[in-house]
Amino acid sequence: MVNEGPTEKKHVKALVIGAGPAGLCGAIAIAESIGDGKQILVVDEGIVPGGQLPKQTHKFFGHEGFYASVRGFEIGEKLVSKATDLGVQFSMQTTVAGIYEDSIVTYDRNNNSVDEYTADYLLIATGASERFLVFRNNTLPGVYGAGAVQTLMNQYKVMPGESFLIVGAGNIGLIVAYQLLQAGANVKAIVEASSKIGGYMVHANKIMRLGVPIMLNHTIVSALGEERVQGAIVARVDEHFKPIPGTEKEFVVDTICLAVGLQPSVELVAQTGAEIKYISELGGYVPIRDENMKTTADNVYIAGDLSGIEEASTAMIEGYIAGYNIAQKITGQDLSEKISTMKDELIEFRKGPFASKVREGLKKMNILFPSGGYRERTQQSTGPNGKLRAVIECPQAIPCNPCETSCPTGAINVGKNINSIPYVDYDKCIGCGVCVMKCPGLAIFLLQEKEDYSIVGIPYEFLPIPENGTIVKLFDKDGRYVADGQIDKVSVNRKEKTHLVFLRVPKGMENIVRHFDLAINSEEYVCRCEEVSRQDVEKVIDSGITDYEEIRRILRIGMGPCGGKTCRNVVLQIIAEKTKIPISESKLGAFRPPVIPLPIDAIVKSRKGVDKDE
Amino acid sequence: MSDVNGTYDVCIIGGGITGTALAYSLCKLGETSVAVFEKSYLSSGSTGRCGGGIRQQWSTKNNVRLAMRSVKLFENFEEDVGMDIEYYQGGYLMLSYDEEEAEQFEKNVEIQREEGLDVEILTPKQVSERYPYINTQDLIVATFCQTDGHANPHKAVIGYAQAAKRMGADIYTHTEVLGVDVENGKVVGIQTTRGYFKCNVVVNASGPWSRQVAELAGVELPTESYRHQIFVTEPLENFFPMMAISFAGNFYMRQAHHGQFIMGQGDKDEKPGINYNVTFKFEKELAEKMVGIFPFLKNLRIMRHWSGMYNMSPDAQPIIGQSDKVKGYFYAVGYSGHGFMVAPAVSEALSELIVFGKTLHTDVSYLNVDRFSNEDVEKEKNVV
Amino acid sequence: MGRLVEHPILNVKVSGAAEHMVFYFEDQPIFALPSDTIASALIASGIDIFGFTEHEHARGFFCAIGKCSSCLVEVDGVPNVRACITPVREGISVRRQIGRGKPKW
User: Fold this and answer.
1) What is the pTM of this model?
2) Which residue of A96, A101, A118 to mutate against B (max B Cβ within 10 Å)?
């Protein structure tokens, strides 16, 4: 009944599990060292290799050596083509189903087939999975993981909803919020249970200036809806993260996006027999490993988020370290120089304040990383008045330096320790704007004070690209409307897609305005019966017609079924704002009857009644 | 030696079905000075890894009697012990694909019927009429007993342990027994990772580790542990009420309470020794075989796969009794893969042996280790 | 809910309509692109309730990577198909899965 014959097992020198940044860099390191990529197989569940990279539309931090300022999906493409050029083999849409006693089993879901492998070395780079959150109705359709939203939106180009509540203000929550806004969605708020924003401030600033509130000390209590999400209730939390009764607020949203953190995917590495330990600073259960990324199991190496939740640059470096170590064993050659170069990189990336958890966690495995040695103070001066110049609003020490390396005049200094906060030398800065378009945090702006107005240049990654001369609304760093302004000019960057928009803003507001909104983008209706917008009214007033009755006749305001009850006062308000003439002094318009639409049959009926009486 | 941490009449080594059921049975008899020592968590050994089947269709009279007593106790479990253990008498369908075995089946049924067990003999045609989802190709004969069934082994252990605790027993989990102290040929205490405990009776209910635990007291037991593997699929609606089993076909399968299909087979090439790894060979072989017999399985996915130990005795039947070398040293080991289903009756008998010196309900003297010195061993044939 | 028609960073242009395919959800025709999974095609069509649990709770898309059991649907009578990672095929009949799914033999 059973086929007892020996099954064919395929053998590879190195099997890399996971084609994210860590796995890809590991495969590249092995392939370039042994000179034969065909001996290396990378297995990954995704449709395309790259792990989370293909879903990331934002520019990455770090330095040029690890693709800083390149968008995530493009980094993925670069790494994949590098690996492919070296001959590395890929098996996509394939899951390593288990590391069994007798073989490593892969499942190819596209062909619905199973293969068995043996490998001399394993590099496990399975990354992490999303944490779940428990609240009422959390299984309703419309409650999605952040990764799922990114997959659907950025890979399948399908939007799961229109208005979103995001839970979690770590980097993932902040990034997803920005990506949703770019895709045209409405992000109502981000709630964060802790008392501070966990992600990079520059990511937070990107969405706060677009008007998305980040509600600290708040959590989601319940999703609303019978068969799918129709809203959410959030509440303030106490110091134990418990919701405080009476502080509930309701949001009307159709999608709730959970971004409450990641946990290493240790299942496969555990099956190799490698020792696993719970280290909360690293995200939960992690494999014990040495500084060469070797686990306690023979010939089993790890890299990336599996070894502790961190970010893409360090995942790449860990991949290289693991890869060179494996290559060293396969070939017998001495690769210690390359390995120590990568270890130095890792030291550099882990010196900053955001790496403190990782440093603490690794200390528990007796792997020590130094901290400090970088500039923590932000530059106070915003440069000389009147000169077109860059100001950098990068308040935290994060390992990132494309501003420095992209500046054509050498005006920006970060220094050897890339965690340092950048400074601008205003004697050298020529206001060219290259750094504005390069900064992954979109945290650099151009300023110039003119005689009657000021210029603010801001990085812009939305559609539509505005036309010169358009009147726009101006917002501050928290997304508050502060004034009206005008598009001065736009430098379109079709290749990198971060454009530089120059705004004319009222004098004195150059350090306040950080975002603009095209009025046409969000129409404010003054008259809902006839669909007349604020802009329509303002245009008529600008053309010199300032009398309410005249505007009424041009725009049909007040001629709809409501009889002007909703719009009259709003229009009078606009006239007053624009003409500076108080409403009390403007001419009273007519109030024609009937004040409600009156049914004809009612009138007819009443006529008959009168007749009867007669 | 560390300080004495406690004194009990009976110390039981092993927190599986036998150890906890025995603690419960002793308490029921009024012997509440009982402690169970489990080196990991309750049911972490063989019990929590087993298929959960409970059958009475055996090939020897004694085994049929023991199993029938157990079923009686399982039937009253919820009422007596106080826990719903998902016990379900959906029957055991025993399928034979071998002429010689088919003949043996008919003989077995005679013995079973003599003991008062209601067993049917089914032709392949009857099987496919009754169970249209079974492919009866190559089937020679089947037997079916409706009162056989299955239960959730974890819950049974927890139920027994909680009931024993309520009556006064102590349960020490994550506590390993390191030594058994014997003075003048008599058990006096045990050393554990939680210190020393004095006692008069030690019971070896340590499943896979039975031989090593016996050696702690200088007792020899002819047991050997062999790995057996099981996998479970994702769930379907419940429609498959019975345990389907075949000795010649080498498989068993049931649908669990929550809809998953649990199945396993034996491997004659397995080497003795404790090994909790799993092989893909097992999945391949079993999946291929089972899809042939149960075609609906082809649309399901395997959810989990694990292994457990059969603590085998030379004749594939349990070894129950008291050591004649060390007084106060009892054992209930060597279950050979069917410990869960007979544990209630065995524990009852053993508790009677400990308290009264003789059994009252079921005779287990035929399971004493002495039998291996006889040449005429009646071997149990109904084992996967 | 629906397909992106423009995006400031990503290329969202879809080549000719000739590449569209059709499958059926609860007997209603659904248009899909060759790159679609069952889930992406359904959500693009405004459908996000993929089934109900045995306790009659609605379920849909959740993890997007085949790791949870939220998006199980019946495809051509076979239950437990993960809509989020199963590519669309021309003409398949997809139904909401209710509870654990029925066996097919």
Assistant:
1) 0.85
2) A101
